[in-house]
Specification:
Farnesyl Diphosphate Synthase; 2 domains
Length: 340
Amino acid sequence: MKLSKDKSVVALIFLLFLTRVQIKYLDGDTTTSKNIKQKSSGSLMEQFGDYLLKINNTLERELDFYSWSEFYSSLKYACDGGKRIRPLILVLSSEIIKSKKNDENIFDNINLDFSKIEDQRYLAASAIELLHTESVIHDDIIDEENVRRGKPSFHIKYGYNNSILTADFVLGIILNITSKLNNPRISSEIANAAIRMSEGEIMEIRLNKAHTITEDDYIKVLENKTASLFETSTRVGAILAEADEEDIRAMGNFGHLMGIAYQIHDDLDDWNNEDRLFNLLMKQNNHSQVLVNKMEGLYKSYSIKAKNELNLVLSNIQNKYTKRLKHQLEELTNLTMLPF
């Protein structure tokens, strides 16, 4: 008899729970962090699905050239997941310059092969994503991160020796891709990004050891470690579309500023859960809400500056397609659709 009563109580509690969930659902109270992130991810795929599909297909094709290698399965693991934001802004930058030049009828070469530009930009996008992947493998070792993209970090799954060698192998693939592009300027841009990313990483290591950091130090690290690859992505996209030097510079500035905004936003979102340089800045300021508010304002400031650079490239555009591309890049700069 006692067991029956216990079951009745459990059933009643469960029924009340279901009723409460149903009421919250009908009231629209579903704004958990997980739901927001899923919605953001969906928005990214919804707006840029075609581009992302081509990026992933090209990356998969390039990796499949190495199906003979012992690194193949670990390569696939390293490249699985991710937002593909860097290759995406490369492709969009190329597309927006191409659309602008179409509007203005100022292509230098009337016989320009648009299909070749299409192939090259997705190939270059693969090199950018692979450089990011290589840096992630190294970063997770240095930062002692055990989880990446919801699964074990590369060095946790494959070990340190395999991680070092795989990153070396990825570098070889990047060099191979840049040789296919047959454009020394693009090779130089990607090489410079790798140099600056390494510089940013070693700066971060030094500052963490010193246990002291200024806001200027923090931004300097972001400029090198994160923003450099964003900047290279937008510059390479513009170069592939044969933009003039002024537009290449403006698109590069756009990527640079967006990269800083992106990393500040990411650090603000996760600072309490991850051992990052931003944590050191917070600790020095006694976890001050004033600093948080200041950094939120700084993130918004960099986002606005990025849009201003985009406006320099597209100030007098009337074509609806080009305007839509501009709006999409601006939405990415808002970072509202990106799952962090």
